[in-house]
Amino acid sequence: MRSMTDFGNDLYTGKASFPFVGRRRTWFIVAIVLVVLSAIAPFLRGGFEFSVEFTGGSQFLVSSPSSTDQALATDTVEESVPGTTTRVTTVNDRDIRVQTSQLGAEQTQTVTEALASAYDVAPEEITASFIGPSWGQDVTRQSLWGLAIFLGLTFLILAIYFRTWKMSAAAIVGLLDVLIVTVGIYALCGFEISPAAVIGFLTILAYSLYDTTVVFDKIRENTMEDADVSGRTFGESVNLAVNQTLVRSINTSVVAALPVAAILFIGSLWLGAETLSDISLSIFVGIIVATYSTLFVAAPIYSLFRENEPAIRQADERVLAARGAA
């Protein structure tokens, strides 16, 4: 039985190869379908759910209520302040969180007393907080600015490091693919987008960038070799580089995903740490998507960007002609 080491050696030498570049049309179709589904699917279940930090409003946390019936909270708020938009969730399987549209001081007091009566707890057991719309707008604006600055600096630094804007463009396409698919899956799971989730999204972009840079560095090394000497076309050199780093990418992803999975499934879902669930789910999904995107999207796109350059096309033609004459 062949070991993982033998398999890795075969990938590195080219004895075994997966057609990342050769079947790129298939991978591009799969990537487009995933992006479209990730963008549309959340709206089929009502759209993206943003936390109160983004939308603004009032929030009430009922600690250790006699019941966790969410409909009771909805009915209580509607009776206290008719027409108020209400969203109720269970926290840690024992507390009730009620988010409403913006309420005044008197309305907040009325809802607090009504919830205390409905859930048979003392008013002191209910924590009421308010986030103004301007604060939510600031959070949204800063998040978008953070994303824009990250992508801009990424493009610039990669263009300087790899000495070609096409490699930067391919990396940015891969990062956008990671972001859209990760956010779509996150929203489809029913999790609301909170500041903690945004931190997770930005963190996973950094991980994806690291993985892409390692693979692209190997691609640059392979493609710098003269095609007439290597006997490979440009696309074959790119494909070889991706296969040479395949085992490393898989190992890195597994090592990164395991502790995040522990945080997600033990810390958040079992122990009920809500903030941990927001950030760990986004990172866990992002690690998987980032690995796929680097291998099946970013690297094949870079090959596509370069193959039609006159010098590369002529070199590829010489290599193919030499094979035909052999």
Could you explain the architecture of this structure?
With 326 residues, the protein is α+β, with helices and mostly antiparallel strands. It has 13 helices and four strands. It has helices at 4-13, 24-44, 52-55, 70-80, 105-118, 133-162, 165-188, 195-223, 227-230, 234-244, 246-268, 274-307, 310-325, and strands spanning 57-62, 86-91, 95-100, 126-131. It has a four-stranded antiparallel sheet. Helix 7 (165-188) packs antiparallel against helix 12. The longest helix is centred in the last third of the chain and has 34 residues, at 274-307.
**In sequence order, what are the helices and strands, one letter per element?**
HHHEHEEHEHHHHHHHH
Sheet of most strands: 4 strands, antiparallel
Distance between the termini: 35 Å
Total number of helical segments?
A: 13
Strand content: 5-15%
| Widest sheet, order of strands | 2-3-1-4
| Overall SS class | alpha+beta
Q: What is the number of E strands?
A: 4
Mean pLDDT: 84
What distinguishing features does this structure have?
71% helix, 13 helices, elongated, alpha+beta, 326 residues
Question: What secondary-structure arrangement, pairings included, does this model have?
Answer:
Elements: H1 4-13, H2 24-44, H3 52-55, E1 57-62, H4 70-80, E2 86-91, E3 95-100, H5 105-118, E4 126-131, H6 133-162, H7 165-188, H8 195-223, H9 227-230, H10 234-244, H11 246-268, H12 274-307, H13 310-325
Antiparallel strand pairs: 1-3, 1-4, 2-3
Helix pairs in contact: 1-10, 2-7, 2-12, 4-5, 6-7, 6-8, 7-8, 7-12, 8-10, 8-12, 10-12, 11-12
